[in-house]
Design goal:
Blueprint: H1 5-21, H2 33-57, H3 62-84
């Protein structure tokens, strides 16, 4: 799988620079639901990657890994819904 190292570095640095130079509310990006979902996909991929590393360190059994991944997804869905009102299981909200 590609890691998108250069692309992520460019995006992250650009966002940090914009935020550092912004005046007032200039740094509000006004993401569409689709753009939010794209950012979420990137975050969730990174989260699962680091969770896998942690599970390896703890020598977790595969069933426990799967249960943790499912719970992580449910917790992330709840967090997003709580703070944005968006339900990531309703894909039509993001098309």
């Amino acid at each position: 799988m590609r890691a998108y190292k250069q692309e992520l570095e460019i995006i992250a640095n650009d966002i940090l620079n914009q935020n550092a130079e912004a005046k007032g509310s200039e740094n509000k990006p006004n993401y569409t639901n689709r753009e939010f979902m794209n950012a979420l996909i990137i975050f969730q991929t990174a989260l699962m990657d680091k969770m896998w590393d942690n599970q390896n360190f703890d020598k977790m059994k595969m069933q426990d890994r799967e249960n943790m991944a499912v719970q992580c997804g449910l917790d992330l869905r709840k967090l997003i819904h709580t703070y944005t009102g968006l339900d990531t299981h309703k894909i039509e909200e993001f098309l």
